[in-house]
Amino acid sequence: MLLCSNFCANVFPTQPQLYYPCLFCLFAASTTQLDLAQWLTCPQSALAMYQLTISFHRALEHYLTPLHLALRSPAVASLPFKITTTSFPSGTGHMITSLRGNEIDIAIGLTEGWVAGLAGKQQASQSSADGGYKVVGHWVDNPLRWAIVTGRNRDEITGVSDLKDKRVGVSRLGSGSHIMSFVLAQQQGWKADSLTTVPLGPFGPLRDGVSGLDSSKPEQAANPSAEFFMWEEFTTKPYFHATSEKPNPPLKKIGEIFTPWPSWMIVASTALFPNPDQDQRLESLFQALDQGIKDFEADTARVVKLLGTGELGCNYIEEDATEWLKDVRFTNATRGVDDKIIGDVVDVLKVAGVIDSAMSNDEAIQRVIGIKR
Asked: Any idea where this protein resides (predicted)?
């Protein structure tokens, strides 16, 4: 652990015996005799040794393709920090826990989960308005397409109308799959509490939960713990779409739902980035991510190939990859967040009962946004 020699709030993960002034203190201390440019290029400086950990939702790797392309770019080598990535199969809720535990620094995940984590009733009841992270940038501008699925053997469920007052499986409380259950209830005209939430964990346990089957105990009768769950369309498709190789997939699709907002955003830890709108490390990161998006859009044939190799953690047939590419729209500039977009998310989450209706939109936006556009 490397601490700033001026003993400010900045902490860097490296040897405990080394102390250097951090970037914030170099800017703030007018009496320093250090040359900033020389310090930044020094291999022993805190910033040069700093390692930034970016996390993402492991089950939705195709949305991280521009990130993977950015990390392959020669420009990444010139960044004043190293980047490592880590995946979270349980999704946004798990990443929020890790951000608050100072286990990760940056995360890319679902918009509704980030907003609910910062302005939702549970966080609003805390004495501090600091939720451990702030939303600092856009990633994907189009809505996310969620498949609504149940077990293939659930003959009593044939459509969305059969789900009223039933059990919905979610990865974690506060996750995107949890928030979307409220959105579904709102769109169907059901009461916000009409669905019983059942946290089941990542994608695999969710599939088992609605089928009621235990692959380790095939002799046991089906005992489902939820009637349905919602997950990103193309990740789920191999499990509900019958093929000649897999004529009896474990799930069946009974509907779909779209988020009524841009689907993916970038957040940063407030412990590491207390003033994100003035942080040069984030500026460098945004530039690298923007380049990754440009590389993505410049060679979609390469993207289709990558998505089919398993190299990025997913293996999609060309038809599915091409269909996904028709709809996905990555942002033109990752830095900053639009007030109106967050306000629209807050409005929906209030109706869904996730955010207290007594909280003003201004307060919610202040809790959520770290960098405004």
From this structure: Periplasm
**Do 182 and 202 share a domain, yes or no?**
yes
| Amino acid identity, position 171 | S
Confirm whether 165 is domain-assigned: yes
- For the stretch 163-219, pLDDT in tens is 999 999 998 887 788 889 989 998 999 998 899 999 999 899 999 999 998 777 777
Cα–Cα dist 203/205, whole Å: 6
- Alpha helix segments (H runs only) across the chain: 23-28, 36-41, 46-49, 65-72, 92-100, 111-119, 121-124, 176-188, 203-211, 233-240, 280-298, 300-309, 318-327, 339-351, 361-368
CA distance 322 to 160: 28
Q: Residue 309: inside a domain, yes or no?
A: yes
> From CA 259, how far away is CA 196, in angstroms rounded?
20
The sign of the CA dihedral 365, 371, 372, 373 is negative
pTM: predicted TM-score of the whole model, two decimal places: 0.77
Tell me which of 258, 284, 308 is where a domain ends: 258
Count of beta carbons in the 10 Å neighbourhood of residue 35 = 11
Q: Is residue 226 part of a domain?
A: yes
Summarised one tens digit per residue, pLDDT across range 259-289 is 989 999 999 999 999 999 999 999 999 999 9
Rg (C-alpha) for the chain, rounded Å, is 22
| Residue 69 CB-density burial (10 A; 0-12 exposed, 13-18 middle, 19+ buried) | buried
Average pLDDT over residues 306-324: 82
pLDDT at 101 over 80: yes
Alpha helices in 149-193 (DSSP H): 176-188
